[in-house]
Amino acid sequence: MTMYLKNGLSACMGLWFLVSPWVFGFEAQTNAFFICVLLGSVQFVGSLLALGKSGKRVWQNWLCLLIGAFFILFPNVFHVELMAYFLFVVLGFLTILINYANLYADEQ
């Protein structure tokens, strides 16, 4: 997979985290709503800024990796339904893997 594809997938996951409060109906939980919107937006923008970049010095990939780690913890902090729990954990883990692969890929 090229860096563009990996960062594009990470950006798509950021969009998913951004819209997930409306999809799962927890927009009434103010803290969970704002955290999802804020971190999903940051992941989306960070992934777009990292398009085509790889290596340990790309701060956007580090940022997205940390956001992925937070989204694994998110459903434990804010109690969400089972399907949301599953998707947050799986997509958070995939975010970590994709950005880790970008950080430790051969620099071009």
UniProtKB/TrEMBL annotation:
Pfam families: SPW (PF03779). Keywords: Membrane, Transmembrane, Transmembrane helix. The chain crosses the membrane at residues 7-26, 32-51, 58-78, 84-105. InterPro entries: SPW. Signal peptide: none annotated. Residues 6-98 form the SPW repeat-containing integral membrane domain. The keyword Transmembrane applies. It comes from the Bacteria. This is SPW repeat protein. It comes from Paenibacillus violae.
